[in-house]
Amino acid sequence: MTAVYSKILGTGSYLPANRLTNDDMAAMLAKDGLETSDEWIFSRSGISARHFAAENELTSDLAVKASNAALAAAKMTKDEIDLIILATSTPDNLGGFPSTACVVQDKLGITNGSAAFDVQAVCSGFAYSLAVADSFIRSGMYRKVLVIGAETFSRILDFKDRGTCVLFGDGAGAVVLGASDEPGVLATAMHADGSYRDILCVPGRPENGRIAGSGFLVMDGQAVFKLAVKVLDQVAQEVLAKAGLTAADIDWLIPHQANIRIMEGTAKKLGIARENVVVTVNEHGNTSAASIPLALDAAITAGQIKRGQHLLMEGVGGGFTWAAALIKY
Ligand code: UT7
C-alpha cells in the first residue's frame, strides 16, 4: 500500500474592514487618560496597525470568509470537506459551546455530516491543528480537512491596560489540507507546559451564568518573551531533525506573528536570513491562532511562496503551548 501524506491544496484569509493605526490606538487610550505612542508600540513589537471586527462580526464570520477563499483557491466545493478543525481562543459562544467549528460548518452550508471541532492551544492553535489534521489524513480517517485559525481578540482586550491592548488584532486564515501520494507535511511537533499557565491567560470563569473574575486577557510580557524565544528554537530544531533537513533547507520561516523581536530572535538562532521570514505583524498585530494562516496566505497571494518550497511554521502561546509544522508546499 502506498503511503498517504497530506498536502496544502489552498489557502485563504480575511481581515475585518476596521483598521486602526498606532496613532488611532493612542487617541483611543488618551480618552481614558492613558498614554501610548506609535514610537513605543512599534519599537517594542514591530506593530503599526491592526484590524478589529465590527460589533456584529463574530469569529465564525471571519472564519467563513477565510474558508470560502481557501476552498476557491483549492478549486473545491464545500461538500468535499470531511473534517473542520478550528483553532480559536475567542469562540462565538461562552465556553466555546457549541464549538465555533460547528457554527462555521452551518454558515458554510456544509450538510454532509462532516466532523467539526475546535482546538484550544491559544497562539499555537493553528500549528496544533495542522498536526492533528495531518495525523487524521495519514491515518486514512479523513481526506479533505479545512483547518482554520480565527480570532476576535478585541473582545477580550482590556482597553485600560496599555501593556496588552495595543498588541493584538482580529482576523482569520484557513488552509485546505488534502490526502496526497506525495508530501506535503513532512513533520510536526506539539508541546505544552501547564505550569506556566498564569503568564498569559484570561483568568475569569463562568459561575451562575456570569463571569467570575476578569474576562480580559492578562499577560506577563517579559516572561512570555523569554520562554517564546527558547521553545521556538527547540521545536524548530525538532521538526527539522524529524524530517532530516537543516535550517539551510528552509525557504520561508512563518512564525506566529506576536512580536518582531521574538521573530527576528528565533530566525537568528536558527541561522535563517531576515528576508526568508514572512512578516505581517506590522499590519495585523498579534492575531493569536489566526496569525500563521494569515501570514501564509499573504505570502502565497503575493507570489513570495512558491510550490515545492520548504515552509517552517511555528507557534507559541498561552497554556503554555508551542508547536511547529515543516511543510513542502
Ligand atoms: O502570542 C504571545 C503573545 N505575547 C507576546 O509575544 C509578548 C511578548 N512580550 C513582549 O513583546 C514585550 O514584553 C512587551 C511588548 C509586551 C512589553 O515590552 P517590554 O520591553 O517588556 O516593556 P515592559 O512591559 O517592561 O514595560 C516598559 C515600560 C513600563 O514603564 P516603566 O514601568 O518602565 O515606567 C510600562 O509601563 O513601558 C510602559 N508601557 C507602555 N508605554 C507606552 C507598557 N505599555 C505601554 C504602552 N505605551 N502601550
Helix content: 25-40%
- As laid out across the biggest beta sheet, the strand order is 1-7-6-4-5
Radius of gyration: 19 Å
Ligand inventory reads:
oxa(dethia)-CoA
Mean model confidence by pLDDT? 97
Q: In this structure, how is the largest beta sheet organized?
A: 5 strands, mixed
Which percent range describes the beta-strand content?
A: 25-35%
**Secondary-structure element sequence?**
EEHHEHEHEHEHEEEEEEHEHHHEE
Regions with little confidence, pLDDT below 50 for 5+ residues: none
Number of E-type strands: 15
- Indicate the overall shape: globular
Number of helices: 10
**End-to-end C-alpha gap:** 24 Å
Please state the oligomeric state of the protein chains shown. Answer: single chain
Structural class computed from helices and strand pairing: alpha+beta
In short:
The chain has 329 residues and is of the alpha+beta class. Helix content is 33%, strand content 26%.
Give the topology, please.
Blueprint: E1 5-14, E2 18-21, H1 22-30, H2 38-45, E3 49-52, H3 59-73, E4 83-87, H4 100-108, E5 115-119, H5 125-139, E6 144-152, H6 162-165, E7 170-180, E8 185-192, E9 200-201, E10 205-207, E11 210-212, E12 218-219, H7 221-243, E13 252-255, H8 260-270, H9 281-284, H10 291-301, E14 310-317, E15 321-328
Parallel strand pairs: 4-5, 4-6, 13-14
Antiparallel strand pairs: 1-7, 2-3, 6-7, 8-15, 9-12, 10-11, 14-15
Helix pairs in contact: 3-4, 7-8
Bound molecules: oxa(dethia)-CoA (UT7).
